[in-house]
Amino acid sequence: MIILHVFSVLNLQFSIMAFKGRENFGRVGAVLAAAGSAVGLGNIWRFPIETGRNGGAAFVLVYILCVIILGLPVMISEFLIGRSTQANTAAAYRKLSPDTQWKWVGRLGVLTGFLILSYYSVVAGWTVEYAGYALFNTFAGQHDYKVMFNDFAADPFWPVLWLFVFMFVTHVIIVRGVKSGIERVSKILMPTLFLLIMMLVFCSVTLPGSGAGIDFIIHPDFSKIDGMVVLSAMGQAFFSLSIGMGCLCTYASYFRPDTNITRSAINVASIDTMIAIMSGFIIFPAAASAGYTLTAGDVGPSLIFITLPHVFQQAFSGAPILAYIFAVMFYVLLILAALTSTISMHEVITAYLSEEFEMSRKKAARMVTSACAFLGIFCALSFGLLNGFHPMGKTIFDWFDFLSSTILLPFGGMLISLFAGWHLNKKLMYDELTNYGTIRIRYFKILVFILRFVAPIAIGFIFLNETGLFDIFR
Ligand code: PFF
Questions:
Q1: For the chain, N or C: smaller number of CB within 10 Å?
Q2: How many CB atoms lie within 10 A of CB 214?
């Protein structure tokens, strides 16, 4: 027994020695960086929208189930694939399975990241404009926040400019590197964001007339659950947890060999889910108090930019200076939450280009920044100049969102679970999860079962249902 233990510790030491050359995150830094990737606009902007579109509390429940049953196992798989190979996502699959087509899973992730980064940075750019409004106290004199937002989003210049600014800042941090760029930024921003969200929840739920909004998010109406709700919940879970596109795999390639993968994954998923639900508790009670109907078709990507300015004015109507301070801090922190996510997407593509094509990190980052900024222009203009352009019923922005988040992320998640469940060497998986026998895990069989059957079948069912071929949920 003692000999076995000594052997395990020696194994871990060897892998620590082998690891020394690569930049790496500290233990807390690893969780905060991955949580920084996970917590972003998806929690604060997209989760409430999806909840509104899909009937409220019932969606939240399906969402939590998706996180536990599908999200966590895939996240754990991404972590162990990344950490065991210490390489960018395409190389990771190639290293684990040389001479097979599995490398395409990594490449697909890079493509998905590319698409998401392009439209995500547009919304991130909007947050910069709104931080400006907050700073110059523009909200105070406004009566119609909807008109204010629509006018801004339709403008051909400012949304594009802010997109560029956002891509540029992301670029600068990426070029600084893993430890002094990514880890440092995450360590400061995540705790601050959490505190601020807690304060905002408190303000929102104590607003007069907020009860209907609270009801909407805590009383499930199960008749609302159909295939589309499940598909949206799953898409949202993958999007929000940043899984299915090699982002966590890339970050885990910077984890130290003694990082506890299971614990890190649970921490990241819990932080992410908590912040998403708390955002619901900011938006819905405030919206109810302001008299918005969130179940109807007026729930669009603009919600956060229309409802929240109202929250600040309402919540602190007796103390305008507090409204001012809160608005400024909230939008600045929204920017920073978005930033930790854009950094993580950028890192996936930059690591891929620089390692696969042997170019400097700087040059790779420059290519990623320019290409995404270029594609982002079309997404930004979807709300104005290109508003009438609806190929197959969706704007360009909506296509980017739908293709990447509803289709490619879950598809990537399915491939990752098939890879880890069926193809990956189980001893290697076990060694990674137990840090070579130095920690105990009890869920290995369940994990493999979920990865082999539950996750791929659930995702497959939902896709079939989505195409209408398999209408069993209605
Ligand atoms: N998880 C991020 C959010 O919720 O805003 C978005 C995201 C980041 C998706 C990184 C995918 C990704 F790889």
A1: N
A2: 17
Q: What is the rounded distance in angstroms from the CA atom of residue 93 to the CA atom of residue 88?
A: 9
Q: How far is the CA of 239 from the centre of ligand 1 (A)?
A: 5
Tokens 């929690």 appear where?
43
Could you tell me if 64 and 385 are in contact, meaning their C-beta atoms sit under 8 angstroms apart? no
Q: Taking a C-beta distance cutoff of 8 angstroms, is the pair 240, 38 a contact?
A: yes
Q: 91, 21, 125, 94: which is closest to 372 by C-alpha?
A: 125
Q: What's the CA gap between 51 and 71, in Å, rounded?
A: 18
Residues contacting residue 434 through CB under 8 Å, at least 6 positions apart: 440, 441
Q: How far apart are CA 260 and CA 263, in angstroms?
A: 6
CATH level 2 (architecture), domain 2-11+26-165+175-345+370-467: Orthogonal Bundle (1.10)
- Using CA atoms, how far apart are residues 371 and 394, in angstroms rounded to an integer? 22
Residue whose structure tokens are 């939008």:
331
Contact 119 CB / ligand 1 (< 6 Å): no
Smallest Cα–Cα separation from 205: which of 266, 277, 269? Answer: 277
What share of the chain has pLDDT > 70, as a percent? 90
Residue ranges covered by each domain of the chain: 2-11+26-165+175-345+370-467
Report d(CA 361, CA 351) in Å as an integer.
Answer: 7
User: How buried is residue 454: exposed, middle or buried, by Cβ count under 10 Å (0-12/13-18/19+)?
Assistant: middle
Q: Is the CB of 412 under 6 A from ligand 1?
A: no
- Look at residue 102 and give its three-state secondary structure: coil
- pTM, whole model, 2 decimals? 0.89
For 40-94, the pLDDT digits (tens) are 988 887 888 888 878 889 999 999 999 999 999 999 999 999 999 999 999 999 9
> Whole-angstrom Cα distance, residue 147 to residue 151?
6
Query: What is the CA(455)–ligand 1 centre distance, in A?
Result: 20
